[in-house]
Design brief:
The structure holds two protein chains of two kinds.
Chain A: H1 2-20, H2 23-26, E1 31-33, E2 37-38, H3 39-56, H4 62-88, H5 100-106, H6 114-133, H7 139-157, H8 159-162, H9 168-174, H10 183-211, H11 216-268, H12 277-291, H13 302-324, H14 329-348, H15 353-356, E3 362-363, E4 369-370, E5 373-374, H16 378-400, H17 403-413, H18 415-420, H19 425-451, E6 453-454, H20 461-474, H21 479-495, H22 503-517, H23 526-541, H24 543-554
Antiparallel strand pairs in A: 1-2, 3-6, 4-5
Helix pairs in contact in A: 1-3, 1-4, 3-4, 3-6, 4-5, 4-6, 7-10, 11-16, 11-19, 11-20, 11-21, 12-13, 12-14, 12-19, 13-19, 16-19, 17-19, 20-21, 20-22
Chain B: H1 2-25, H2 30-61, H3 68-88, H4 91-94, H5 96-123, H6 132-153, E1 158-159, E2 169-170, E3 173-174, H7 175-197, H8 199-209, H9 211-216, H10 221-247, E4 249-250, H11 256-269, H12 274-296, H13 308-322
Antiparallel strand pairs in B: 1-4, 2-3
Helix pairs in contact in B: 1-12, 2-7, 2-8, 2-10, 2-11, 2-12, 3-5, 3-6, 3-10, 3-11, 5-10, 7-8, 7-10, 8-10, 11-12, 11-13, 12-13
The chains are: A mainly alpha, B mainly alpha.
């Protein structure tokens, strides 16, 4: 009972937060299924589901379900009260999102009445109950259901994106003309998303019963086939993805490249660099200064300027790295943040305006020329960026498994021990910094050429936070994790225009939640998982000292 | 290390040459220098108040509360609405002293609440985790708070109502700067008394000294940490109102720069060291106010005031490199 009240209250606060920051209203136009189910409602339903689930968790009898329904009901009540307040009191001077349209969304256009109250309470109770019911299904089943629901929501969200890609008859069948999935389409997508994992599960179980593990030859062939498929997918992407998607893919690629670079520094060597944008900026501005006729200093071609830009970035990486690398971890983070800001402020200043363009930035940056071809469309840049990412990926894998990679990880685990084992920590850290910088610089140089201009606003601290967030989401130190993180945190917001404003809000939540509940990330690196388990083990052994604190917590 | 020293020597040389040339050229009158100093002190008082929050939390938890700048912002921002309401009813003009006290109390309350919730939700579950983990959480919390305020109250700049009493000058100094400086000093005094004479203050100091020993002596560690955040938050809230008096506007991103600068002040004075944080704040405020005209003008840099943040960040980096223990020395107890 107390549990239900607590979670219901927390859920209500979150629901108010979502409504008042404007997230709910922002998604009111994004239809998911047919006319009625917009993404606003999905957001609120998901919240109720989660609240119900959390309430019923670890309570194994029927009271758990009742509590789940109660907490969901509370969230519904809170939403109705919010609608009431918004209609009765004019809060718009302070809260910009507290508009009549918010009240309309919250009450399903019925106004603040007994009917809308009853509907909200009913929905809350039922959804909370279902959320509580999820605790009764075994874990694999739960994962399948949640996964399938997410896939359906995702497909509904990406309608406009899939539109130009899918054949017309499939589009007409799956999606409704008003936006979002059509009802049969939603059923089919949901059914497929449930059926495929179930089929795989059944097949795997049958095979395991028959003949034990697969022979290595088959496994190897399968992996090869997957790789070939992957390569074909990535290479053919711009051919069927058209302009908009290619543009998004370019940005995702640039962030993957930056993620790979920061991963060397943060993931492998364990140095939190909050000013990584400095290298991105230096790469971009080097490209601009070297090639743009506007500044009149130099007008090199793209291919000549590219290696020079990367070299400049590496050099600046060493220059910044040398003084800061002796600091302890958290000071290093702030010092690098300081460097990042210094670079941006210098670029912005009138002092360096004749050389760097000041607040107006630099335009007319060189395009890459290949024989008779000029690369100037996003679909063509895609290949350049793909090559860059491939290079970064290859470097990362080779470095990770090399002597220097081991040295980085040793430093990450314990600097003093690493030094005692004969690792020169300054050299090792400097190498991490310089290599990481080179990838940031490459990304910056490609970015400058792609958008054909650089302005100081593109190089704010937010870029650094973005890269850190995508690493944290995917799993610090994990290479596939970078892909996942970049797709989720760069790709998805680019595709959902309404979402742009709330990007950083979500990044903040991602950083906090991931660190608390899933520090290894969505696609963790294997050694990292082991480390975290060991750390948890150690913490358990050290428990006696903490019992004192814990017991007082309860008192 | 050679390179680091070379950079340091170069910066020192530039400062000296720049100052000499500015003074020799005589661009500024003595009155102007005086104004710079006064402004620097008022600004420094604000930095000092925020810096105390950083330094106290660092002293207790060995953690940079990166979101402290946002705690400051939330106080200033919420007080804006109260100030507006008071101004509309004419209360701000008729009872200026009482309204200022009200504003500060309100801002302190909001900031305190946010700081305590922040600790409870984002930092407490991670106590004892590797150092980078709570730092990343703090960065996340910082952006969450910023963009929550942006979502709630919009992204535009809100202009604070003016307090008629503070508009004049006393002895040629702007009244509001005097009030801000004295307000900061008074708040510092209250903090000192709180930490010295109350049981909670004693508990905070004990936990900063040695957490485990304090726990064994019967100090409720969690409560002491919560009160550390509460006190730090309250200071930041007061600082928020003072800041709004000087600059007369609030915006959701306003916490970032003062936050970093206050952290710089805390390190400058020696992290964990309370008098150090106050001193560091004043020094940084002064350098930032005087510096652009003093060092940079003489070097022939146009629009030098644009680079005042660069000066602050350069000080931050230089201090972290050459004297990470600060002017007055770190005061950290045994490791957690």
């Amino acid at each position: 009972m107390r549990r239900a009240l607590t979670f219901g209250l927390i859920g209500s606060v979150v629901a108010w937060h979502l409504s008042l920051v404007g997230l709910v209203a922002a998604f009111a136009e994004r239809r998911l299924i047919g006319q009625s189910l917009t993404f606003s409602y999905v957001l609120l339903l998901a919240l109720m589901l989660l609240v119900g689930y959390l309430t019923a968790r670890r309570v194994s009898d029927w009271t758990g379900l009742a509590g789940a329904a109660l907490s969901g009901l509370l969230v519904g009540l809170a939403l109705w009260i919010l609608a009431l307040i918004v209609t009765e009191v004019n809060l718009r001077d302070a809260f910009v999102a507290a508009s009549p349209s918010l009240a309309q969304i919250l009450t399903f256009d019925r106004g603040v009445s007994a009917a809308s109250l009853a509907i909200l309470l009913l929905i809350g109770a039922v959804t909370g109950f279902i959320g509580g019911g999820l605790t009764w299904i075994p874990a694999t089943g739960r994962r399948t259901v949640i996964g399938a629901l997410s896939v359906t929501v995702l497909v509904g969200l990406l309608r406009d994106v899939l539109g130009p890609v899918l054949p017309a008859f499939l589009m007409g069948f799956l999606f409704s003309p008003a936006g979002g999935l059509s009802l049969p389409g939603a059923v089919i997508v949901l059914g497929l998303a449930i059926a495929i994992p179930v089929m795989r599960h059944v097949l795997a179980a049958r095979k395991a019963g028959q003949e034990g593990p697969l022979p290595a030859r088959v496994l190897r062939r399968r992996r090869l086939a997957l790789r070939v498929l992957g390569v074909v997918f990535f290479v053919s992407f711009p051919l069927w993805a058209k302009l908009f998607l290619s543009n998004v893919a370019d940005f995702v690629g640039l962030y993957i490249l930056m993620g790979l670079g920061l991963n060397l520094v943060l993931g492998f060597a364990g140095l939190l660099d909050l000013g990584y944008v400095a290298f991105f900026a230096i790469g971009a501005y080097s490209m601009a200064v070297l090639t743009s006729p506007e500044l009149g200093a130099l007008t090199l071609g793209f291919w000549t300027a590219l290696p020079i830009a990367v070299a400049i970035t590496v050099f600046s990486g060493i220059l910044i790295g040398l003084p800061v690398l002796r600091m302890r971890g958290d000071y290093l983070a702030i010092a690098t943040l300081g460097f990042g800001e210094i670079v941006r402020l210098l670029v912005l200043s009138d002092w360096l305006k004749p050389h760097l363009g000041g607040a107006q930035g630099v335009t007319r940056i060189a395009r890459p020329v290949l024989g008779p071809f000029v690369i100037d469309r996003p679909q063509e840049y895609y290949y350049l960026i793909l090559i860059g990412c491939g290079l970064g990926w290859f470097l990362s894998v080779r470095l990770r498994d090399s002597r220097i990679g081991r040295a980085w990880m040793a430093i990450r685990e314990d600097e003093d021990v690493a030094q005692a084992m004969g690792i020169n920590r300054v050299t090792a850290k400097l190498l991490a910094f310089a290599t990481g910088a080179s990838m940031g610089g490459l990304s910056g140089a490609l970015f400058a050429s792609l958008v054909n201009s650089v302005i100081p606003q593109s190089f704010s601290i937010l870029v650094s936070i973005n890269v850190v967030a995508l690493l944290v989401l995917g799993g610090i130190g994990s290479l596939p994790g970078i892909l996942v993180g970049a797709l989720a945190l760069v790709g998805l917001p680019e595709l959902l225009r309404e979402f742009q404003e709330y990007r950083l809000l979500v990044y903040g939540v991602v950083l906090v939640i991931m660190m608390i509940w899933r520090p290894a990330g969505l696609w963790p690196e294997e050694t990292r998982v082991r480390e975290l388990e060991e750390a948890a083990e150690e913490a358990r052994e050290r428990a006696p000292a903490e019992v004192v604190v814990a017991s007082q917590d309860g008192a | 290390m050679v390179i680091a020293w070379a950079i340091g020597a170069l910066v020192l040389l530039l400062v000296l040459v720049g100052s000499y040339r500015t003074l020799a050229a005589g661009h500024y009158t003595a009155g102007q220098w005086f104004d710079f100093v006064v402004f620097g002190l008022a600004q420094g008082g604000i930095y000092a108040l925020i810096a105390l929050g950083y330094t106290m939390v660092y002293g207790v938890l060995r953690m940079i509360n990166f979101a402290h700048g946002e705690v400051f912002m939330s106080g200033a921002f919420s007080a804006f609405f109260l100030a507006n309401a008071l101004a509309r009813r004419g209360f701000l003009a008729s009872n200026p002293v009482l309204s200022l006290v009200l504003l500060m109390a309100f801002a302190a309350l909001v900031s305190m609440t946010i700081a305590v919730i922040l600790e409870r939700v984002a930092y407490r579950p991670l106590r004892g985790a590797p150092r980078l983990v709570p730092l990343i959480t703090a960065v996340g919390a910082s952006f969450f708070l910023q963009y929550t305020f942006r979502g709630l109250f919009g992204s535009g700049v809100r202009v604070y109502p003016t307090v008629p009493l503070l508009e004049g000058t006393i002895f040629g100094i702007q009244t509001k700067l005097i009030v801000v400086f004295l307000g900061a000093l008074a708040t510092l005094g209250i903090l000192w008394a709180f930490l010295t004479f109350t049981r909670t203050g004693l508990a905070i100091r004990a936990v900063a000294e040695d957490m485990e020993a304090a726990a064994l002596m019967g100090v409720d560690v969690n409560r002491a940490i919560s009160s550390t955040f509460a006190v730090g938050g309250a200071m930041a809230g007061v600082a928020g109102v003072l800041y709004a008096l000087v600059f007369a506007q609030v915006q959701f991103f306003m916490g970032f720069l003062p936050g970093i600068k206050a952290f710089t002040s805390a390190v400058l004075g020696g992290i964990g060291n309370l008098p150090g944080a106050a001193l560091g704040g004043l020094v940084l405020g002064l350098v930032e106010s005087v510096g652009p005209s003093l060092f940079l003008d003489g070097l022939g840099i146009p629009a030098a005031h644009q680079l005042k943040d660069v000066i602050a960040f350069t000080i931050l980096v230089l201090i972290l490199i050459f004297r990470p223990t600060g002017i007055l020395g770190e005061r950290l107890g045994s490791r957690v």
